[in-house]
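ok trying this again, last paste got cut off
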Amino acid sequence: MQEPKFEIWNSEKNGQWYWRFKAGNGQTIATGGEGYSGRRDALRAISRLQASHRSKIYSLTPPTVK
């Protein structure tokens, strides 16, 4: 199993920059959700995500009691 990692790339179709986060097993578990006009903008988005890793978790669905 590999280390989790961020991947960043430039689209040949539209010139936008994109990122995704992959788990150690290679599965994509997060994406930027939008294209960025510059590489630096995409890297800033990744940095914001890294800085917020201790953010609170909000459940949008009430837990089911069993």
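PB: full thing came through this time. The beta strands are 5-10, 17-22, 28-31.
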